[in-house]
Automatic annotation (TrEMBL):
Keywords recorded for this protein, A-Z: Cell inner membrane, Cell membrane, Membrane, Transmembrane, Transmembrane helix
Transmembrane portions of the chain: 50-69, 97-122, 143-162, 174-193
InterPro entries named in the record: PqiA-like, PqiA-PqiB_transport
Main localization, broad class: membrane
Protein name (record): Paraquat-inducible protein A
Lineage of the species this protein comes from: Bacteria, Pseudomonadati, Pseudomonadota, Gammaproteobacteria, Pseudomonadales
Length: 218
C-alpha cells in the first residue's frame, strides 16, 4: 500500500523548542537553529503524564472544598468555595459570571481528567479504537487548556469591581492556590503526552490482507 514516508525513515526530528525539522543524520543531539536538545519522542511520556494527572487530581479535592475568596460587604464577611460562589452569583442574577466560573472551574477540569485518562489507558492497552478521533480529542484538550485560568481571572475582576465601587472587600483564600496548581498540572500532563503514541501500535491490515486471512481460515 502506497503511503508517504515517515519522518523517522527520512532521519528527520522536530525540535520541541523552535519547531524546526532537523536532519539527525549528521548532528543527532541538538537543533542547528536554537541549540536545544533533540528528542525523537517525548521522554517517559506516559509516566510523566500519569504523574502530572494524578497530582492535579489530588489538588482538585482541596480546590473545591476550601474557600477561594472571602467577601466582605457592609461589615459582614463570608468565605466562598467554587460551587458556593457559583450559586451565589446565580441567585443574585449574575448568571453569566456563574456560568463562566462553573465551566472554567468544574466542567473544563473534569473534561480534561476524563479525556487524558482515556488517552493514557487506550495507548497503554494498544487499542486501535478510534485513533483519528482520539488525536482530535488530544487537540481539543490542548485548546481548552488555554482557558483554564479563566476562573482565577473572573475572581480578580470581581474583586476589582467590588473595590472600585467601594461596596466592600474581597480577599483570596487558600482554595484559589490549589485551583491554580490544578490548572498548572493538567496543562503539564497534556504537554507531556505524546499523541504519536496513538499511532504506534500495530496498524490495521489492508483490506486485501484481511480478505486473504478470511479465505485462509475457511
Amino acid at each position: 500500500m502506497n503511503r508517504p514516508p515517515l519522518a523517522s525513515e527520512l532521519n528527520l526530528c522536530l525540535c520541541h523548542s523552535c519547531g524546526l525539522a532537523c536532519d539527525i543524520t549528521d548532528n543527532p543531539h541538538e537543533c542547528p537553529r536554537c541549540g536545544a536538545p533533540l528528542h525523537a519522542r517525548k521522554t517517559n511520556s506516559l509516566t510523566r503524564t500519569w504523574a502530572y494527572l494524578l497530582t492535579s487530581l489530588v489538588f482538585y479535592i482541596p480546590a473545591n472544598l476550601l474557600p477561594v475568596m472571602n467577601t466582605s460587604l457592609f461589615g459582614s464577611g463570608s468565605d466562598s468555595t467554587i460551587m458556593s460562589g457559583v450559586l451565589e452569583f446565580w441567585q443574585h442574577g449574575a448568571w453569566d459570571i456563574a456560568l463562566i466560573i462553573f465551566i472554567a472551574s468544574i466542567a473544563v477540569p473534569g473534561i480534561k481528567f476524563v479525556a487524558i485518562s482515556l488517552l493514557l489507558i487506550t495507548v497503554q492497552r494498544g487499542s486501535l479504537w478510534a485513533r483519528k478521533e482520539r488525536s482530535k480529542l488530544y487537540r481539543f484538550v490542548e485548546l481548552i487548556g488555554y482557558w483554564s485560568m479563566l476562573d482565577v481571572i473572573v475572581v480578580a475582576l470581581v474583586a476589582a469591581l467590588v473595590k472600585f465601587q467601594a461596596l466592600g472587600d474581597i480577599q483570596p483564600r487558600l482554595g484559589i492556590l490549589f485551583f491554580g496548581l490544578v490548572v498548572v498540572f493538567t496543562m503539564l500532563s497534556a504537554m507531556s503526552f505524546d499523541p504519536r503514541l496513538i499511532w504506534d501500535n500495530q496498524r490495521e491490515k489492508p483490506p486485501n490482507e484481511e480478505v486473504m486471512d478470511e479465505v485462509a481460515s475457511h
